[in-house]
């Protein structure tokens, strides 16, 4: 090493306090490269630079977080606790830079060091701590809570492995473990001194204390420790930072030295591993719980640690327990954390010695519950036996809640004895099940759905009995998305074009997008709008070429269907139409005039046979079409593997047509639909979830709705839906189904996709794919015709963006804050 080199190195280390923000950021990065990461500042690689930049931002975030916490504390504000088994934050770097107002500074600092910000940002591997819509919504809401300066906390689980990494191999989904922590944790603080004990199993002991009170305690329980890991969520340029506290399971056994002293060293280590399994992996099921013991353990683990944290904070105030609901609200994101209700009861009754009535008064004023699905298989139930084994005291408490509740219902509805069985918290049949949604409704002061349509369905059918019992509890909060990530960050050039015309206020007041409307008739704006969109499509085309080796035409209509794979989301309906188009191209060349690129993406639950099979079908159809020389550029089909937040950010800004085609009545809301429309894509969709409200806002003439309405779906079903009739009547549909069943797309395994066709023709077509096929084909034709008139299309695109203001998560969270939580910004 020459002295000159070491002199150089020295000169790049922090010296005098820097003055310019870019310079000070650069000094911080270099300091972290050396002192936190132990690397040479002379030649750090990109990953090292990314991590050092992340650490430098964490420094700034933690300072603001401490200040924000002091603010909340000093004002003694009411706090919101948002409990969710899933969060899907996506990559943090750009989001944090934008929120902190440090994007240009970071660019400058990195350029100075010989790196590009985009390349460095690409080094980030996102934490996939959620499955799909529900987890992503939780992250959008934290972003908005921070931007609105709400005294809020997100609580979840620090899974060591998030949602699996999806590979497509020979057309099939293959799952790989998602070791998101392998690169280290640069955004979070692990609070190893900060742990709560969580107790499972054991037996309930009943005893009478000196005051003659009947007491309950748990004996011989197994204890696992929950360790806090905090990640920071900054508001948009407002110096306010919230934390998302994720619990990691740690064994308590290393504290039990006696265990080692007995000589069973390996045994002790095995137990340790078993304990720490609790937070090992996220269950990869979307809307169909697996019902495994470990999952219920995870739910209780989150709940118990969180309630202890809440109670600890409340105790510090030294005020009476009946003030708890005035100072706190606990929001249950779906029923997954609903065991929080009996857990709070247990603490108040068993530990704080409140009477049942006092404790219940507090509980039903503290909890609020959001329902996200009406699919019967997604409504969580637990076998009573399992509950009794794992959480014996909690089951007793649930029984007591139920006894008192049914007593009241009997008095309210003396002439309807059947209602008791329908609303009971415990389903009694051959086997007994605890119904978590009933527990959540009975124990909460607010129950909301996530779109106007969905909330009506809850009141009218799924929870109709409860609506009669507690009409005042039911309300709607239509979902929203954060414009910071889903426009500003993922589509910076479009965001810039917008800001150039209407200023930057839309970032925190999305209704301002309305101001774009006068420009829809300006030719210059038109051109700029379409240029930005085309550039985005070019970038996606490059990505597709790199990843899939397929060349697609950026000028073609990008028709995109990305979301979890589920039969109700009807990716199958889309493929049937793709095949119909393919047949038209083959049988009458010239009949298809608009070249299309179909883009699919999404994961299927590993145990969901039909969803995985549909993925395979799409890939087989893609292969057949992409290699058929008769098709040329008219039709391309692409499946992009491992759909995740990072990939969504690439795809959405490049989409022309957004597929939102669930069976009416089945998609609670959807939020992908909002992200696409906000970025100027046109929706083709059913009258379902938030599609209906999107139509009301953007105008029926600016999107393509089709298909049965949800009441028509129900009527058709109750009248005995016969999918075969549609098959027999529609020759184009018949040809498509016969090709699939006959092995056209799987010549080496002709029977491969027979099950798919069987599910439609012989097993009742539960999702009404065939009933909606024809109207879908017509609507697709309308979309293609509209696309031919690029000026008219551009107008539609701009109007979609300008009228999406309502769908900001800021609006949604503000409604939660005012109508449910009773909190305001600090
Ligand atoms: C989803 C629903 O399927 C979507 O319609 C909805 O937009 C989002 O939640 C957010 O509200 N959902 C999910 O992702 N996972 C579940 N278990 C239930 C609903």
From TrEMBL:
Catalysed reactions, as listed in the record: [(1->4)-alpha-D-glucosyl](n) + phosphate = [(1->4)-alpha-D-glucosyl](n-1) + alpha-D-glucose 1-phosphate
Enzyme class, spelled out: transferase
Region (Disordered): 1-22
Stored SUPFAM superfamilies: UDP-Glycosyltransferase/glycogen phosphorylase
EC number from the UniProt entry: 2.4.1.1
GO MF terms held by the record: glycogen phosphorylase activity; pyridoxal phosphate binding
Cofactor needs: pyridoxal 5'-phosphate
Gene3D superfamilies, A to Z: Glycogen Phosphorylase B
InterPro entries attached to this UniProt entry: Glycg_phsphrylas, Glyco_trans_35, Pyridoxal_P_attach_site
Family per record: Belongs to the glycogen phosphorylase family.
Function: Allosteric enzyme that catalyzes the rate-limiting step in glycogen catabolism, the phosphorolytic cleavage of glycogen to produce glucose-1-phosphate, and plays a central role in maintaining cellular and organismal glucose homeostasis.
Name this protein carries in UniProt: Alpha-1,4 glucan phosphorylase
Lineage, broadest ranks: Bacteria, Pseudomonadati, Thermodesulfobacteriota, Desulfovibrionia, Desulfovibrionales
């Amino acid at each position: 090493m020459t002295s000159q080199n070491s002199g150089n190195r020295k000169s790049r280390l922090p010296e005098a306090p820097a003055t310019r923000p870019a310079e000070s950021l650069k000094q911080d990065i270099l300091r972290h490269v050396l002192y936190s990461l132990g690397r040479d500042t002379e030649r750090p690689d990109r990953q090292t630079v990314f991590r050092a930049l992340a650490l430098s931002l964490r420094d700034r975030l933690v300072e603001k977080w401490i200040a924000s916490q002091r603010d909340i504390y000093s004002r003694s504000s009411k706090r919101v606790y948002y409990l969710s088994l899933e969060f899907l934050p996506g990559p943090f770097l750009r989001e944090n830079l934008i929120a902190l107002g440090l994007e240009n500074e970071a660019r400058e600092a990195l350029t100075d060091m010989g790196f590009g910000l985009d390349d460095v940002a690409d080094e980030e591997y996102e934490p996939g701590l959620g499955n799909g819509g529900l987890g992503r919504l939780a992250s959008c809401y934290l972003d908005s809570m921070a931007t609105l300066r709400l005294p809020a906390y997100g609580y979840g689980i620090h899974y060591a492995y998030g949602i699996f990494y999806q590979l497509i191999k020979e057309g099939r989904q293959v799952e790989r473990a998602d070791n998101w922590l392998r690169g280290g944790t640069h955004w979070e603080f692990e609070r190893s001194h900060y742990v709560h004990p969580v107790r499972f199993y054991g037996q309930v002991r009943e005893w009478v204390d000196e005051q003659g009170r009947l007491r309950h305690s748990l004996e011989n329980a197994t204890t696992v420790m929950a360790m806090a890991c905090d990640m920071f969520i900054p508001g948009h340029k407002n110096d306010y930072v919230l934390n998302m506290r994720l619990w990691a399971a740690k064994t308590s056994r290393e504290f039990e030295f006696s265990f080692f002293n007995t000589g069973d060293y390996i045994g002790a280590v095995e137990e340790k591993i078993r304990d720490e399994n609790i937070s090992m992996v996220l269950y990869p099921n979307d809307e169909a719980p697996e019902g495994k013991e470990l999952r219920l353990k995870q739910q209780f683990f989150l709940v118990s640690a969180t309630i202890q944290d809440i109670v600890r904070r409340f105790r510090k105030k030294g005020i009476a327990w009946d003030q708890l609901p005035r100072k706190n609200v606990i929001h249950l994101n779906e029923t997954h954390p609903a065991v929080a209700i009996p857990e709070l009861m247990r603490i108040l009754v068993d530990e704080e010695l409140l009477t049942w009535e006092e404790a219940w008064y507090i509980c039903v004023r503290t909890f609020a519950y959001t329902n996200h699905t009406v699919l019967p298989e997604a409504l969580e139930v637990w076998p009573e036996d399992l509950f009794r084994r794992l959480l014996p005291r909690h089951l007793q408490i649930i029984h007591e809640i139920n006894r008192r509740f049914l007593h009241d219902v009997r008095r309210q509805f003396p002439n309807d004895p059947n209602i008791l069985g329908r609303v009971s918290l415990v389903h009694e049949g051959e086997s007994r099940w605890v119904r978590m949604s009933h527990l959540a409704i009975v124990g909460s002061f607010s129950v909301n759905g996530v779109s106007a349509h969905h909330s009506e369905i809850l009141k009218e059918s799924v929870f109709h009995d409860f609506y009669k019992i507690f009409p005042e509890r039911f309300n709607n909060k239509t979902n929203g998305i954060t414009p910071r990530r889903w426009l500003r960050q993922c589509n910076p050039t479009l965001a810039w074009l917008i800001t150039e015309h209407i200023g930057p206020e839309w970032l925190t007041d999305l209704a301002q997008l309305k101001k774009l409307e006068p420009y829809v008739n300006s030719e210059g704006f038109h051109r700029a709008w379409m240029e930005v969109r085309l550039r985005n499509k070019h970038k996606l085309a490059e990505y597709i070429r790199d990843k899939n080796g397929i060349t697609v035409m950026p000028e073609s209509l990008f028709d995109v269907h990305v979301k979890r794979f589920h039969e109700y989301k009807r990716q199958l309906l889309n493929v049937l139409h793709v095949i119909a188009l393919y047949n038209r191209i083959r049988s009458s060349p010239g009949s298809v005039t608009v070249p299309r690129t179909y883009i699919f993406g999404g994961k299927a639950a590993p145990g969901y046979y039909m969803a995985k099979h549909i993925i395979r079908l799409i890939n087989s159809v893609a292969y057949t079409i992409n290699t058929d020389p008769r098709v040329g550029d008219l039709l391309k089909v692409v499946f992009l593997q491992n759909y995740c937040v990072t990939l969504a950010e690439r795809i959405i800004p490049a989409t022309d047509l957004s597929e939102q085609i669930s069976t009416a009545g089945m998609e609670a809301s959807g939020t992908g639909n909002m992200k696409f429309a906000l970025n100027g894509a046109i929706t083709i969709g059913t009258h379902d979830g938030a599609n209906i409200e999107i139509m009301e806002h953007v105008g029926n003439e600016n999107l393509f709705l089709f298909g049965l309405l949800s009441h028509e779906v129900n009527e058709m079903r109750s009248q005995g839906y016969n999918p075969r009739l549609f098959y027999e009547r529609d020759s184009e549909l018949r040809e498509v189904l016969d090709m699939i069943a006959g092995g056209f797309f799987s010549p080496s395994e002709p029977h491969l996709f027979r099950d798919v066709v069987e599910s439609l023709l012989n097993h009742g077509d539960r999702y009404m794919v065939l009933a909606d096929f024809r109207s879908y084909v017509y609507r697709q034709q309308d979309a293609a015709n509209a696309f031919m008139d690029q000026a008219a299309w551009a107008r539609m695109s701009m109007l979609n963006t300008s009228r999406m203001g309502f769908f900001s998560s800021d609006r949604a969270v503000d409604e939660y804050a005012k109508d449910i939580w009773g909190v305001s910004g600090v």
